[in-house]
Specification:
The protein is an alpha/beta fold and 214 residues long. Helices cover 26% and strands 25% of the residues. The protein has a 9-stranded mixed sheet, sandwiched between helices. A two-stranded antiparallel sheet has the order 2-9. The chain is globular, with a radius of gyration of 17 Å. The mean pLDDT is 91.
C-alpha cells in the first residue's frame, strides 16, 4: 500500500542501507547568467545570490540533515559557520574536503557549535574541540567513512568545484538550485547541470528547482 510514497518518505534510510552511503543533496544558488560567485571575493564574507527567505529555507534544510559538506576553498573565501543560526534546529556535522591542509586555524567551521570532520591527504592538522582529520580523499572512500560513522544524509553546499565532483561521479540523490534574477556578467561558473527544462517554484523573486534522481 502506497509503496512509492513510503519509499520516498524514508529515502534517506533506504539509501543509507541499500547503497551503503549517505543520502546526498546537492545545493547551490546561481545568477540568471549562470555564475555562482564573483571571481574574487575580497570581503572574506559570503556573496549572497539568493534572497533572505531562500537563505532561511537553507538553514531549515540543514536542521533536517545529518551533515553538511563544503570544499576548503569555500572556507577560505567565505569563512562560513555552516550552522542553523537562522532557524531553531540542530546543527549538522560539518565536513570539509581539504586535501592539502589549507584550512585556517581560526575558521568558524572549527568552532564548538558542532562537530567538524576534515578529509585530507595527510594527517598533519592538529584540531581542538573534538574535531577530527581523516586521511582519505577519493570520493568513494569519503562516502564509505561517513557511512561507517552512521551519517545518513549530507548536504553538499559547495563550491562549484566540489559540487561538480559529486555530479561527475553521479553521487547525488537530490539537487536543489536557487536561481536569482541577478546578473554578475563574470565570475565563477555554476556547476554544469542543465536545469532549464525542470519545473520550478518561486520563493519571492528566486526560482527554486528541486530535482530527484529517482
Amino acid at each position: 500500500v502506497l509503496k512509492k510514497e513510503a519509499e520516498f518518505l524514508n529515502r534517506r534510510f533506504y539509501t543509507f542501507h541499500q547503497k551503503k552511503r549517505p543520502y546526498i543533496i546537492m545545493k547551490w544558488a546561481q545568477t540568471e547568467d549562470g555564475f555562482i560567485s564573483p571571481l574574487i571575493n575580497k570581503t572574506n564574507r559570503p556573496f549572497w545570490i539568493s534572497n533572505n527567505l531562500s537563505r532561511q529555507k537553507v538553514h531549515q534544510w540543514r536542521s533536517q540533515e545529518a551533515s553538511i559538506l563544503v570544499g576548503v576553498q569555500t572556507v577560505i573565501d567565505d569563512d562560513p559557520e555552516l550552522t542553523t543560526r537562522l532557524v531553531d534546529g540542530k546543527n549538522p556535522i560539518r565536513i570539509v574536503l581539504d586535501p592539502n591542509n589549507r584550512i585556517p586555524n581560526n575558521s568558524k567551521v572549527l568552532s564548538t557549535e558542532s562537530e567538524t570532520i576534515i578529509f585530507s591527504k595527510t594527517k598533519n592538522l592538529e584540531l581542538k574541540n573534538n574535531n577530527q582529520v581523516i586521511n582519505q580523499f577519493d570520493l568513494d572512500s569519503i562516502l564509505e567513512s561517513l557511512y561507517k560513522k552512521g551519517i545518513q544524509s549530507v548536504i553538499v553546499e559547495g563550491g562549484a568545484y566540489t559540487i561538480q565532483k559529486f555530479l561527475d561521479n553521479d553521487k547525488w540523490d537530490c539537487i536543489r538550485i536557487y536561481k536569482s534574477n541577478k546578473n554578475l556578467k563574470g565570475g565563477l561558473l555554476a556547476p554544469n547541470y542543465e536545469v532549464e527544462k525542470s519545473k520550478f517554484t518561486y520563493i519571492e523573486d528566486d526560482k527554486f528547482y528541486e530535482i530527484f534522481k529517482h
